[in-house]
Amino acid sequence: DAKTTQPPSMDCAEGRAANLPCNHSTISGNEYVYWYRQIHSQGPQYIIHGLKNNETNEMASLIITEDRKSSTLILPHATLRDTAVYYCIVRVARSGGSNYKLTFGKGTLLTVNP
Amino acid sequence: AAGVIQSPRHLIKEKRETATLKCYPIPRHDTVYWYQQGPGQDPQFLISFYEKMQSDKGSIPDRFSAQQFSDYHSELNMSSLELGDSALYFCASSLGTGTDTQYFGPGTRLTVL
To answer: How many Å apart are CA A18 and CA A11, to the nearest integer?
Structure first.
């Protein structure tokens, strides 16, 4: 799986959009970009994933650059409850065989301030 | 919606004892993954099962073993516990097709004294 690079920490004001970047310059054509977050000591929470098109769900939007070497997770209106470590993970889609584990990097600690 | 269930949520053991952690996947999910998260560290993959067969193995000590049962629940058995085994243990489940999105349980906090 391709490696990812994320800033170690970011701050955001409550009510503002939080834009979390991720670099994955070695991503392969069959690898998806997944985003998870972990609020202190809780189980990682799935947020969103995408292959090459931008994606949006009730939690967030995912913008993937045309060359797929980087992406941005957008929380449109951050709240205090969004304070967490956000992980960007690249992984192949499942198509038989094994090795579908998630490899967690250091992630970005997002702190939402009042 | 039903989520992944893990039990127990907290477990305290002495060194050299054994521990069994249980994971009940989301209904209809056939794949289970186990992860370990040490203090101040990021989750690390241990082992996974698909349709009751081991499908992948990570940095799991030989003292640990796991299996998936006919009802798809999984158990992680840990023997000869060491202080360094103190960690959060997460189970995730997925429907073994397509993008195979994994959904995590709340974790079991194991403390070895």
So the answer is: 8
**How far is B58 from B47, CA to CA, in rounded Å?**
6
Separation CA B112–CA B11 (nearest Å): 8
At a CB cut-off of 8 Å and minimum separation 6, what does B98 contact?
Answer: A93, A94
Query: pLDDT tens digit string along B32-61?
Result: 999 999 999 999 999 999 989 998 999 899
Q: Is B110 helix (H, G, I), strand (E, B) or coil?
A: strand
Q: How far is CA A18 from CA A76, A81, B19, B78, in A?
A: 6, 13, 41, 41
Cβ neighbours of B109 in A, within 8 Å = 41
> Is A96 near chain B, with CB under 8 Å?
no
Q: Which residue of B has its CA nearest to A96?
A: B97
Instruction: Summarize the confidence of residues B22-26 as an average pLDDT.
Output: 97
Identify the residue whose tokens are 């009751």. Answer: B52
Phi, psi of B34 (to 5 degrees): -115, 135
